[in-house]
Amino acid sequence: MDPMQVFDGVAVRRHKARAARGLGRVRPVLEALAAVLLDRLDDSSVRFEQALALGGQGVIAPGLRARGMAVVSAELAPVAGHGEPMLVASPEWLPFAPRSFDLIVAPLCLHWVNDLPGALVQLRAALRPNGLLLASVPVLGTLAELRDALAEAELALTGGVSPRVSPFPDLRDCAGLLQRTGYASPVADVQEMVLMYRDPLGLLRDLRAAGEGNAVAARSRRVPPRALFAQALAALPQEDGRIRATLRLAVLTGWASPV
């Protein structure tokens, strides 16, 4: 296996395509996460005209258009009912000419990229001078409760552990990565969201509905033990009869340097 291939791109696209047919279950969460980026955008005094909405399952583009921008939308898979023209493209293979946009907003798509530095370089090239990249990336600590419970349950049942939750970068590395890939004034700060579930299975259903199924290239292809998920979900810590799922997002901002 290629050590650079952390994720199975075919599985990522398959999960996104399946999820795109019915996003209603998780749309409120996706919209709340998109609002984090839109709020950061509103804090800027710069006025943008031509934007790329990259990822986010179609929820970010309407907010950009409402702010007076011309928007190009691109997703890993088509989103049903989007109502606007949409490109299907990966952050690793962007079909855009240099200096096409003065703003790129990329919610929750860069964490499936195998070559993240290469993708960031491509995104910077697609920005005009003084253009802005605004992105959100899950970082270490996201779904930590589920990761630990699955690992402990699988170890107890089989004596081994297969990766079942994606690896996430450390927040401390994110701003440095922006700087190394040529962005000016790079900033990475964290935004945390906690979701509570009375039905533990609801967490797994929401991950599937968002297209966030397991696409780690090194994952086991074997059918998991029948008791694995029931045992792991039963072990999740509870608060007032509900389980907790933590999302820790790095909000990344970086500017393309002026000419």
How would you briefly describe this protein structure?
The chain has 259 residues and is α/β, with parallel strands linked by helices. It contains eight helices and eight strands, in the order ααβαβββαβααβααββ.
Please name the CATH architecture of the domain at 9-143 and 168-195 and 248-255: 3-Layer(aba) Sandwich
CATH topology of the domain at 9-143 and 168-195 and 248-255: Rossmann fold
Cα distance spanning the termini: 41 Å
Element order: H for helix, E for strand: HHEHEEEHEHHEHHEE
Round the mean pLDDT to the nearest integer and report it. 91
Rg from alpha-carbon coordinates: 19 Å
The CATH class of the domain at 9-143 and 168-195 and 248-255 is identified as Alpha Beta
Helix content: 25-40%
What does this structure look like?
This protein is α/β, with parallel strands linked by helices. The chain has a domain at 9-143 and 168-195 and 248-255: Vaccinia Virus protein VP39 (Rossmann fold), CATH 3.40.50. Helix content is 34%, strand content 24%. The protein contains 8 helices and 8 strands, in the order H-H-E-H-E-E-E-H-E-H-H-E-H-H-E-E. Strands 1, 2, 3, 4, 5, 6, 7 and 8 form an 8-stranded mixed β-sheet that branches. A hairpin with a 2-residue loop joins strand 7 and strand 8. The radius of gyration is 19 Å and the shape is globular.
